[in-house]
C-alpha cells in the first residue's frame, strides 16, 4: 500500500512505465527511499554497535551506509542514462544504468573485504559483547525495514524492467540475512562466554561479499552482450510469423543498448510470387505494430523464397531428409538453385546448435557431410552452405 502510494505520488499517476521520463522518476523514488531508510539504519546500528561493543553490529551498520551510497549512485545512474541520444551516442546512454549498478556492486564487495579484516582482528583480540534488550529489539525492527525495502525495490524494478533496482532488491534481502545473523550472535552472548562476535562478523562479511559478487555478475552480463531471453526471441519470431504471406523467419539479431532501448532485426521469408508492394505493406505494418507491442525497435528484411519449380521442391526435400538425422542442425533457410545444365549450385543456410560444436564436430565437417550426401544422389549439384550458430 505504501509502495503504491509513493509510486503514484512520484509519477503523478502516469502508468506508462516504458516511457523514459516515468522510468527516471521511478528510479529517483527508489534511490531517495533507499538513502533515507539506509541512513536511519546506519545511525541506529552504529549506536547499538558502540553501546554493546559488537564488531558484527558495526559491520552491519557500515553495510547499510554503503547501501545509502549505492542509492545515490543509482539516482545518478538513472539521471545520466536518461540523457537523449547525441552524435557520439546515437543509441542513447541507457547502458550507464548498468555501469552504476556495477559500481554499487564493487562498493558492496569493498565493505565485505574491509570487515573480514576487522572481524579477524576481533577473533585474534576478543572483547566481551554486552547484551541489552532494547538494542536487540531495534535490530529486529531494522530487519522488517529491510524486508520492506527489498519488496519495494523488487516491485519498482519489475514495473520498469530495471536490473539495477532488482539487484538492489536482492542486496536488501541479503541484508535481512546478515542482520538476522548479527541478532542471533547478540542473543547467543546471553548463554555463552565464547567470543563468537568476530566469527559472526566474518560470516556477515562473507555474505556481503557473496551479494556483491552476484551483483557484479548480474550487471556485467548485459554490458558484455548476454543472450536475449527465450521469451523475447519467441515473441519476435511468433509475432512476425503471424502476419499474412510470411512463411518462415531466420537470422534474428537482438542488441541491448540499455533498459527500454532494444533493437532487433530479422529476416522474413515469403513466396516470391507475392506482389512486392503487398508484402512491403505487410512488413511495414509488422515492424510498426511489433515495435510498439514488444517495446523495441524492429527491422524486418524481406526474403523471397522461390518454390514454384519441381526441381527446387525435390532438391529442398532431399536436403531436408539429409539434415533431419543430424541433431546438431536445427533448421535450414534461404534455399535456392543457381545455374543451368549439368553444373548447378545449391545455396542455403543451416542453423546449428553452437553448444554441440567441438573438435570432433566442426562447421567444416557438417558442410562436407551434407555436400557428400547430396553429391552421392545428385552429382550435378555443388553445395554452397553458410553456417549460422545458435546458442
UniProtKB/TrEMBL annotation:
<keyword id="KW-0472">Membrane</keyword>
<dbReference type="InterPro" id="IPR036837">
    <property type="entry name" value="Cation_efflux_CTD_sf"/>
</dbReference>
<feature type="domain" description="Cation efflux protein cytoplasmic">
    <location>
        <begin position="228"/>
        <end position="304"/>
    </location>
</feature>
<comment type="similarity">
    <text>Belongs to the cation diffusion facilitator (CDF) transporter (TC 2.A.4) family.</text>
</comment>
<keyword id="KW-0812">Transmembrane</keyword>
<dbReference type="GO" id="GO:0016020">
    <property type="term" value="C:membrane"/>
</dbReference>
<feature type="transmembrane region" description="Helical">
    <location>
        <begin position="198"/>
        <end position="216"/>
    </location>
</feature>
<protein>
    <submittedName>
        <fullName>Cation diffusion facilitator family transporter</fullName>
    </submittedName>
</protein>
<dbReference type="InterPro" id="IPR027470">
    <property type="entry name" value="Cation_efflux_CTD"/>
</dbReference>
<dbReference type="InterPro" id="IPR058533">
    <property type="entry name" value="Cation_efflux_TM"/>
</dbReference>
<dbReference type="Pfam" id="PF01545">
    <property type="entry name" value="Cation_efflux"/>
</dbReference>
<feature type="domain" description="Cation efflux protein transmembrane">
    <location>
        <begin position="32"/>
        <end position="223"/>
    </location>
</feature>
<dbReference type="InterPro" id="IPR050291">
    <property type="entry name" value="CDF_Transporter"/>
</dbReference>
<dbReference type="InterPro" id="IPR027469">
    <property type="entry name" value="Cation_efflux_TMD_sf"/>
</dbReference>
<feature type="transmembrane region" description="Helical">
    <location>
        <begin position="96"/>
        <end position="116"/>
    </location>
</feature>
<keyword id="KW-1133">Transmembrane helix</keyword>
<dbReference type="Pfam" id="PF16916">
    <property type="entry name" value="ZT_dimer"/>
</dbReference>
<keyword id="KW-0813">Transport</keyword>
<feature type="transmembrane region" description="Helical">
    <location>
        <begin position="128"/>
        <end position="151"/>
    </location>
</feature>
<dbReference type="InterPro" id="IPR002524">
    <property type="entry name" value="Cation_efflux"/>
</dbReference>
<dbReference type="GO" id="GO:0008324">
    <property type="term" value="F:monoatomic cation transmembrane transporter activity"/>
</dbReference>
<feature type="transmembrane region" description="Helical">
    <location>
        <begin position="26"/>
        <end position="59"/>
    </location>
</feature>
Amino acid at each position: 500500500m505504501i509502495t503504491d502510494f509513493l509510486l503514484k505520488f512520484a509519477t503523478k499517476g502516469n502508468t506508462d512505465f516504458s516511457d523514459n521520463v516515468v522510468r527516471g522518476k521511478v528510479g529517483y523514488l527508489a534511490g531517495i527511499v533507499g538513502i533515507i531508510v539506509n541512513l536511519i539504519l546506519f545511525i541506529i546500528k552504529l549506536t547499538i554497535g558502540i553501546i554493546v561493543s559488537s564488531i558484527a553490529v558495526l559491520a552491519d551498520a557500515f553495510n547499510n551506509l554503503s547501501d545509502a551510497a549505492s542509492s545515490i549512485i543509482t539516482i545518478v545512474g538513472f539521471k545520466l542514462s536518461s540523457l537523449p541520444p547525441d552524435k557520439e551516442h546515437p543509441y542513447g546512454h541507457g547502458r550507464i544504468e548498468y555501469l552504476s549498478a556495477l559500481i554499487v556492486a564493487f562498493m558492496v564487495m569493498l565493505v565485505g573485504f574491509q570487515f573480514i579484516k576487522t572481524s579477524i582482528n576481533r577473533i585474534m583480540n576478543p572483547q566481551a559483547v554486552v547484551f541489552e534488550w532494547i538494542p536487540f529489539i531495534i535490530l529486529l525492527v531494522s530487519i522488517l525495514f529491510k524486508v520492506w525495502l527489498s519488496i519495494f525495490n523488487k516491485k519498482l524494478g519489475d514495473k520498469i524492467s530495471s536490473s539495477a533496482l532488482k539487484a538492489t532488491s536482492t542486496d536488501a534481502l541479503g541484508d535481512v540475512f546478515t542482520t538476522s545473523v548479527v541478532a542471533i550472535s547478540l542473543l547467543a552472548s546471553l548463554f555463552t562466554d565464547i567470543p563468537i562476535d568476530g566469527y559472526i562478523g566474518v560470516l556477515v562479511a562473507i555474505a556481503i561479499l557473496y551479494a556483491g559478487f552476484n551483483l557484479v555478475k548480474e550487471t556485467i552480463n548485459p554490458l558484455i552482450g548476454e543472450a536475449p531471453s527465450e521469451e523475447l526471441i519467441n515473441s519476435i519470431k511468433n509475432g512476425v510469423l503471424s502476419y499474412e504471406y510470411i512463411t518462415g523467419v531466420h537470422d534474428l539479431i537482438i542488441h541491448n543498448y540499455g533498459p527500454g532501448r532494444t533493437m532487433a532485426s530479422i529476416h522474413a521469408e515469403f513466396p516470391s510470387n507475392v506482389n512486392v508492394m503487398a508484402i512491403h505493406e505487410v512488413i511495414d505494418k509488422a515492424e510498426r505494430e511489433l515495435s510498439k507491442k514488444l517495446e523495441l525497435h524492429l527491422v524486418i528484411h524481406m526474403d523471397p523464397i522461390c518454390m514454384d519449380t519441381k526441381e527446387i521442391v525435390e532438391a529442398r526435400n532431399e536436403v531436408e531428409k539429409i539434415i533431419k538425422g543430424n541433431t546438431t542442425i536445427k533448421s535450414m533457410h534461404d534455399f535456392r538453385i543457381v545455374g543451368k545444365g549439368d553444373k548447378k549450385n545449391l545455396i542455403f543456410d543451416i542453423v546449428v546448435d553452437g553448444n554441440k560444436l567441438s573438435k570432433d564436430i566442426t562447421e567444416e565437417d557438417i558442410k562436407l557431410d551434407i555436400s557428400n550426401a547430396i553429391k552421392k544422389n545428385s552429382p550435378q549439384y555443388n553445395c554452397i552452405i553458410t553456417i549460422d550458430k545458435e546458442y
